[in-house]
Amino acid sequence: MSRNGFRVLFFGNSQSAFSNRHFQALIHADCRVVGVVDAPPPRRTSTNPAQASDSAFTQIARQHEIPVLAPAEPNAPACVGWAADLCPHLLVAVGYPYRLRGEMLTVPLILPVNFHASLLPAYRGMHPVFWALRNGEKYAGLTVHVMDEALDTGAIVYQVRVRTRPDDTVRSLYDRIIDKSVDLIPRLIADAGGGTISARPQGVEGASYYGGTRNEDFRLDWAAEADQLRRWIVITPGKCFCDVAGTRVYLSDAEMLPIDKPAPFGTVLASDGRACVVAASHGALRLRKGRIDKGGEQDMALILEELDIRIGDTLNAAPNQRKDAQR
Fold first, then answer.
1. Which domain holds residue 74?
2. How many domains, in total, are found in the chain?
3. Pairing relation of β-strands 32-38 and 68-69?
4. For residues 100-114, average pLDDT
5. Are residues 58 and 160 in the same domain?
6. Which of 35, 68, 105, 235 has the fewest CB atoms within 10 Å of its CB?
7. Which of 210, 229, 250 finishes a domain?
């Protein structure tokens, strides 16, 4: 089927590099993009800090005179009717934050497919790359699957695996997943256009579901294992926090260290004028950078000095519970 003959309707999030980079592959594939649907502004969020600017797929679409829609309810009759009038062969969703259902799934002449950044059936739901790193998975990846009425349960068309790394952030892992998965776009177009696309049902072994993140998901508990805390801080720099003398402090990076003898969790063990060392379970963390609430990033030793925290104090203690207040 010719480029103009094979029609694709795209759903994504214009503030997500995940959506935008796959759209760039789609616009150069052997097909015609007949419409794009963006998330409405309040839903254009992501745990991946790699945001779009001039590469947003909505801007590229307008340059190609492709109609753009950003409905608050994509399954409403008006949106379904608009999509149906475009007569797409494929509906392709990448990073779209709404669940498509009902008549919208019947719009494409061949299939509705979703690019989901996990190795399904594991990590169905929201923010799969974040949760895979948070849980210390050795492998992550991406699944192209047929969309059905349930959430991320449809038959698998393609899958790619990516090895995680100890120093991965959400952004760095997303980048490697995208690098490996963008070539699936022209493959999908070729297979669907040639009638050779196939899909296999998802298994039940290893299935899991995760929802959105809450603020409390980023609160550090110094009683947790040091390596777990290091991982949490590293994967989302500047988002994990602890309360220090009644002040919220956000941490940007951390390194795990062994300690000779156990110390109360959260105790400041050392400071070199720039970084500080804090006790946790099964080790300690060397904290280098952080910020106070909405302030700028600075050395952790300077933050503790500003908050009058000394070696031997406990970070999560209330001001009247600190050792220096008892001297």
1. 7-210
2. 2
3. parallel
4. 98
5. yes
6. 68
7. 210
Residues 92 and 200 in one domain: yes
| Mean pLDDT for the stretch of residues 58-82 | 96
- Is 1 contained in some domain? no
- Among 210, 228, 262, residue at a domain's last position: 210
Residues 118 and 226 in one domain: no
The predicted pLDDT at position 53 comes to 56
Binning pLDDT at 50, 70 and 90, where does residue 51 land? low
CA-to-CA separations, 317 to 186, 242, 254, in angstroms, rounded: 56, 10, 21
pTM over 0.85: yes
The CA-CA-CA angle for residues 121, 104, 61, to 5°, reads 95
pLDDT at site 297: 95
